[in-house]
Each structure stands twice: as structure tokens, then as C-alpha cells.
Amino acid sequence: MYKLLKSIGKVRRGEFTTPHGVIQTPVFMNVGTLAAIKGAVSTMDLKEIKCQVELSNTYHLSLRPGDKVIEQLGGLHKFMNWDRPILTDSGGFQVFSLSNIRKIKEEGVYFNSHIDGRKIFMGPEESMQIQSNLASTIAMAFDECIPNPSPRSYVEASVERTTRWLERCKDEMNRLNSLENTINKKQMLFGINQGGIYEDIRIEHAKTISKFDLDGYAIGGLAVGETHEEMYRIIDAVVPHLPQHKPIYLMGVGLPSNILEAVSRGVDFFDCVLPARNGRHGHVFTKHGKINLFNAKYELDESPIDERCQCPTCRNYSRAYIRHLFKAKEMLALRLCVLHNLYFYNSLMEEIRDSIDGDYFEELKKEKLGMWDGRA
């Protein structure tokens, strides 16, 4: 259940109550594709760096260790020792990212495994069954993520199919949640708005899926080839046509500046691999923008990554030391930078929530964007 605590224009501050705890929104979900954050970050670490929600990948976990293995071990929460909310994506994004090894049909998608090439099939029912076995808090409906730009005729047909798939997802989830041996009988379902960069298709699809009365709604198919301006235009068009008493999730976004812009347009949930991926390559976020620790100027720099940061990395280690770890190819470098970047994102969301509570969100947004100056 979503409770709107405060709004300033389109900006929303809320609480989302789930079977695994209350999520304070706006929120950034930390991406652990295979039930772990890449960079040797544990679930105990996640609690220390203010993570509220962890996100895992349905497609990848279905291949290894297998969703039935995780079910036998008590579900994803028990498997990875995490007692807070987990969102699992549906596998739909792999329809986009594995375009060279899949075929889309009405019944679902035929894949070749990216691991060993074996043939696999995933449709709406299979996606719901996998996610039910994982027993995540929030399951995402199975959809097709369309590359931008795509021909209008293809987008229209794809969106209509995604709607038909959503109906099948809802029916299958209701069936699974009613079964005696289902681990999480209160699993929630979010639908996904698609439509490429065509505003009219997006709006019509938003109106259609709103009638399904789901637990939440996502805007998918962005950050896949369009410009930031096009993304903001679509968010502006779609958000007013999604249920305002449900959480709104912008999938796969993104940069800190993108998050501030999307919050100002009414978005509640975010996720992206960007902070962890950047951290693993020595690119870290600071109050003045992103810096590259491989740069020679940090060789003798005894200051922390960000002097204002209270993450475990900044409290204990210098830029010079972390740079040395990268140069020496020590795994600790990846861990320290991923911890810092995720803390940066989680803290940014905390600052955003506080600014809405205190009626100064626009001032915060202006200040942050001014300090980053496009470099973040």
C-alpha cells in the first residue's frame, strides 16, 4: 500500500508498505543481479550504507543457481540473508539486451542461454512462476523493452502484446499467491508502461494498464538510446496518466542528475547498475561530480573520496590508497568504491526525502545540479 505523505507540485514523498517492511520514497534500489552486489558487497554492508530495497534479476537467477533451487532453500530473502524488500525484474529487459539470441512470439520469448547456449522459453506465466519461486517482495510484469528509436508500427504491436502479457501475469500471480506451498503469498505485482518515444502511445498504454489495479506502475523502455530530453518529455507525458495513489518506478535510471529531474516529475522508485559499475572502474561520485581515481593527481592525495561523506570507505581510506589498490589489481579497490557510490546514491535519496519534508526540494535540486555542473 502506498501512502502519500507530502507533495510539492508533482514531487511526491511517500511510504510504501510491503510484506518485508516499509519503503520510504523516493528510493533508489541497489542492483544485485545474481543475488549479490558486484564488488564483494554483502547484505550486511547494504544495511550499513542505507539500502532499503535490493533488486535481483529473474532471468539470470533462473539460469543459475535456478529458481527451484532458491525455492528449496526458502526463497531469495533467506538465500541471501536479506530481511528487507527485494524487487525482481521480469526478464523482459533480456528481450532487449539479448536481441541476437531470442525470438519474440505471442506466447512468450524463446532464448538461447548466454551461458551455455541451451534453448529456454519465458512467457508471462513462466516469469511469474520463477518470481514466485524466488519469493521476492515485488515482481515485475513480463514485457518487451523496445529499443529507441523503433518504427511506430512495431511499437504499437509490441505495446498491445505487452498489455495482453500483463493480463496473463496478473492472472498467474493471483493463482500462485493462492497456492498452499507458495513462500510469499502476498507477493506484489508492478505493471510496466511502454511505447518508445511516442507520447500518444505511452499515454494510451498508461491509461490501459491503470485499469488493472496493480500494486505499482513502472515506466520502462527509457535509458535505451533516447536523449535525456526525450526521456524527461516522456516522463512528463506519462506520469499524470498513472494512478497517483500507487508508486511510480522509472526503470534503469540513472545518473544523479536524472534522478533529481525525475523526482521533480513525480517518480518514486529508481534502479541502475551505474553506481556499482562506475565504482568497479575507479569512477566515484562526489559532491562536485564524478572523479576518476586512476588519474595521476591522486597518487599522493591523502583526502577521502569525498570529505563530507560518512560511508565506510571515506571514514577510513584515502584516494591515494584506493588508487594504489586499483593499480595493484587488488579486489578491495572495487569493494571500497562500490560501497562509496551506493552510499552516495542512498544518501542522495535521503537528502531528497528530507528536502521534500522540509519544503526545500527545488533549492536542493538547483544546488546539486549547480555543484555537479554536468560532470555527475
From TrEMBL:
GO molecular function, one term: metal ion binding
Presence of keyword Transferase: yes
Family matches, as Pfam families: TGT (PF01702)
SUPFAM superfamilies: tRNA-guanine transglycosylase (SSF51713)
Residues involved in substrate binding: 89-93, 143, 194, 221
GO biological process: tRNA queuosine(34) biosynthetic process
Domain named tRNA-guanine(15) transglycosylase-like: residues: 11-369
Organism from which the protein derives: Clostridium pasteurianum BC1
Key words of the record: Glycosyltransferase, Metal-binding, Queuosine biosynthesis, Transferase, tRNA processing, Zinc
Family assignment from sequence similarity: Belongs to the queuine tRNA-ribosyltransferase family.
Entry's Gene Ontology cellular component terms: cytosol
Pathway(s) it belongs to: tRNA modification; tRNA-queuosine biosynthesis
Catalysed reactions, as listed in the record: 7-aminomethyl-7-carbaguanine + guanosine(34) in tRNA = 7-aminomethyl-7-carbaguanosine(34) in tRNA + guanine
Subunit structure: Homodimer. Within each dimer, one monomer is responsible for RNA recognition and catalysis, while the other monomer binds to the replacement base PreQ1.
Protein's recorded name: Queuine tRNA-ribosyltransferase
Cofactor(s), by name: Zn(2+)
Binding locations of Zn(2+): 309, 311, 314, 340
